[in-house]
Design brief:
Order of helices and strands of chain A: HHHHEHEHHHHHHH
Helix content of chain B: over 70%
Largest sheet of chain A: 2 strands, antiparallel
Shape of chain A: globular
Helix content of chain A: 55-70%
Strand order of the largest sheet of chain A: 1-2
Radius of gyration of chain A: 20 Å
Distance between the termini of chain B: 14 Å
Distance between the termini of chain A: 65 Å
Strand content of chain A: under 5%
Number of strands of chain A: 2
Largest sheet of chain B: none
Number of strands of chain B: 0
Order of helices and strands of chain B: HHHHHHHHHHHHHHHH
Radius of gyration of chain B: 22 Å
Number of helices of chain A: 12
Strand content of chain B: under 5%
Largest interface: A-B, 50 and 47 residues
Oligomer: heterodimer
Chain lengths: ~325, ~350
């Protein structure tokens, strides 16, 4: 295998790994732009991965064939939204501590997913391997381009979807009244309230969108990488997505870039063995890489005060 | 109404109790939905806990690390920091203890204390990184400590695999007997439950926690910074240094938790695919305990007991033990959303209040 082929594969694997991260980080962006911290992204991803595995399995049983993964995909968004609703009700309506509720979402979703998995599948800690999952799609003509065709234009449908969502998100956030209001609510809720924007409504939308998108992120992992759900299916991806969100400065396109960076770091891990020089580097260092890089980037480049200024503060009209 | 308000502040005892009850109700609903018998499950849980001296001893063994991690999270909370990195500091504590325990060969009265202190310092320094990054570079401690959790995990795996590994195994060589801190007579008394001095140290730490925060000048500064950093700065306190100190102390508690898992319980460290989870449970313990030392103690007993007893549930009632995670999650959810709990209680309280009025 020559170097070009390896590079092509590396790009392709990077896309596979970063797709789930982009979904989740974009979800986190909607929540945090509205002023609600969401460290429950990990849990929302777990929920999505679980729901996708179960719903796809049922759809296959019902004889839906290749449409099944799409059913699972949609089910993940719905289940994720329901979980996010829990977050929204307690943090927005009852002004609970957002970080704490995020932790709760992480504990609850994994507990519930594992409990349900064992209940549904006779005590097995893993859902059955899915017979139907997403397959890579070749885009006609473009996939015939040497190198790029295999690297970029032969990918899972989820990759194309998430890139479309990212572009749309950028437009929505910075070029529509909805985006303006969402950002206003996250930056200065009392001013937004004064001009008649419902802080509660926009924060609910932000948090629920984060649930739907993080759910899709989890589903992506089940339906493209693992083909089943178990306790370690997600293991930390949600936290990396959170880092990508901060690294990407709460901007949809920045988020895509940051998530791809983490995707690359993860892809490098699986390619590590193929290169001569990497024989001398312990594999643990490749595992550490994304996290160390994040720390360095956060400490060096991002710095202070880029977050929405009302992030983490419950809005209480009585305290204006 | 005034007395009601007094009862229903955040630190009151009623909210946690109601939250615990609601948590158990949520668990019961989950079990009913899954076609299990919740009463049989909860009875099996309690049976498991109190049936034999061995089980009671092992329950204490399970509770001990939660006291440490609960104190760690609480200490940081008290000073305005959210230490979500207790998990990583715990792992670093394990690693520090293992390094000293395996590589050195000393008389027990030096070996054991040295291993304990090394692990504690490892934990403290690991937390100190997050504190330093927050103080000097303005990096959110939540995000940095999440990253540090993962780095700690892989770094520890690397250290074990490279320097301490037992040939052909995925774990370190056993720690020398001279570094172990088991309590032999108690082990005999409890039919070989893994009892160790860490439990005693945990109880001492509860007192230390209280003493440091409320009885020293240092503690006053820590609390002042947590309460209002701007005012503390104006009063001439060095907020940045205080932040690092606070994280260090928090990390020492977390590190000690990890230390005793090695020196008291397992005697070696395994290469882990994921961190052990005591740090995240520590958050739960701290929240339930209202970030007070005695509350942490009670919270650790509740969560440690539930987690240990959950094995009995699957044995006695066929319920997947993960249902306990749902109960725990629900309990913290209700503690965090105390507004929600008050809202739940409203009809009941109104009735009582009006009855009281009638009586008057």
């Amino acid at each position: 295998m020559n170097v070009l082929d390896i590079i092509g594969q590396l790009i392709n694997t990077t896309l596979v790994f970063s797709t789930a991260l982009i979904f989740t980080a974009l979800g986190g962006m909607y929540s945090e732009r509205s002023g609600v911290v969401n460290i429950g992204l990990e849990g929302l991803m777990v929920s999505g991965a679980f729901a996708a595995a179960v719903a796809t399995e049922y759809a296959i049983q019902a004889g839906l064939g290749s449409a099944s993964p799409w059913i699972g995909f949609i089910a993940a968004a719905i289940y994720g939204t329901l979980f996010a609703l829990l977050h929204a009700i307690s943090t927005i309506t009852f002004r609970a501590d957002q970080t704490v509720v995020g932790v709760v979402i992480n504990i609850l979703s994994l507990g519930l997913a594992l409990y349900l998995t064992k209940s549904l599948y006779d005590g097995s800690g893993q859902t059955p391997l899915l017979a139907n999952v997403f397959h890579k799609v070749k885009i006609p003509f473009l996939s015939d381009i040497p190198l790029l065709g295999k690297a970029i234009f032969t990918a899972y449908p989820t990759t194309y979807i998430v890139l479309a969502i990212a572009v749309v998100s950028y437009f929505v956030l910075f070029h529509t009244p909805f985006g303006l209001r969402l950002r206003a609510v996250g930056e200065h809720p009392s001013s937004a309230d004064t001009v008649g924007i419902s802080v509660t409504k926009y924060r609910y939308i932000g948090v629920l969108l984060s649930g739907a998108l993080a759910g899709l992120g989890g589903a992506t992992i089940t339906l493209t990488t693992t083909s089943s759900f178990a306790h370690n299916t997600i293991s930390g991806q949600g936290f990396i997505a959170l880092a990508a969100l901060i690294f990407g400065k709460w901007n949809p396109l920045g988020v895509v870039g940051a998530a791809m960076f983490f995707g690359l770091a993860q892809a490098l891990r699986s390619f590590a063995q193929r290169f001569e020089f990497s024989q001398h580097i312990p594999v643990e260092f490749f595992y550490m890489l994304p996290y160390v890089l994040t720390l360095i980037v956060l400490a060096g480049a991002v710095g202070r005060s880029n977050a929405p200024s009302a992030l983490g503060q419950p809005y209480d009209p009585a305290k204006r | 109404m005034e007395t009601l308000k007094k009862i229903f502040n955040k630190s009151s005892i009623l909210i946690p109790i109601v939250s615990i009850i609601l948590g158990f109700v949520v668990g019961a609903i989950a079990m009913l939905a899954g076609g299990y018998d919740p009463i049989l499950a909860y009875t099996s849980l309690i049976n498991k806990l109190f049936s034999t001296p061995y089980n009671m001893g092992e329950a204490v063994r399970a509770i001990t690390p939660l006291i440490f991690t609960g104190l760690a999270v609480s200490f940081a909370f008290r000073t305005g920091l959210f230490n979500i990195g207790v998990e990583g500091q715990f792992v670093m504590g394990m690693t520090g203890a293992t390094i000293v325990g395996v590589l050195l060969d000393l008389p027990w009265y030096i070996h054991a204390p040295l291993a304990v202190i090394t692990g504690a310092v490892f934990g403290g320094l690991w937390a100190g990184i997050a504190g330093y990054l927050k103080a000097k570079r303005g990096v959110n401690e939540v995000i940095s400590s999440i990253m540090l959790n993962w780095i700690a995990l892989f770094l520890s795996n690397f250290i074990i695999a490279k320097f301490l590994v037992e040939k052909g195994q995925q774990k370190s060589m056993p720690v020398h007997e001279s570094a172990m801190v088991k309590i032999d007579w108690l082990i005999k008394l409890t039919d070989n439950a893994r009892m160790h001095w860490g439990t005693v140290v945990a109880l001492i730490c509860i007192v230390v926690f209280y003493f440091v925060l409320w009885r020293t000048k240092q503690g006053y500064e820590l609390r002042a910074v947590g309460h209002n950093p701007d005012a503390a700065l104006y009063a001439g306190m060095n907020v940045n240094v205080t932040m690092v100190k606070s994280m260090f102390i928090s990390g020492v508690f977390a590190g000690l938790g990890g230390v005793f898992e090695i020196l008291g319980v397992f005697g070696n460290q395994t290469v882990m695919a994921a961190s052990p989870g005591y740090g995240f449970d520590g958050i739960a313990v701290a929240l339930l305990g209202g970030n007070t030392p005695i509350g942490v103690f009670l919270g650790a007993i509740l969560f440690g007991g539930l987690s240990y007893g959950s094995a009995g549930m699957s044995f006695g009632a066929g319920v997947p033990p993960e249902v306990v995670r749902i109960v725990i999650g629900a309990v913290i959810f209700f503690v965090a959303s105390h507004g929600l709990v008050k809202w739940f209680l409203k009809p009941f309280l109104n009735k009582r209040a009006s009855k009281r009025k009638e009586a008057v």
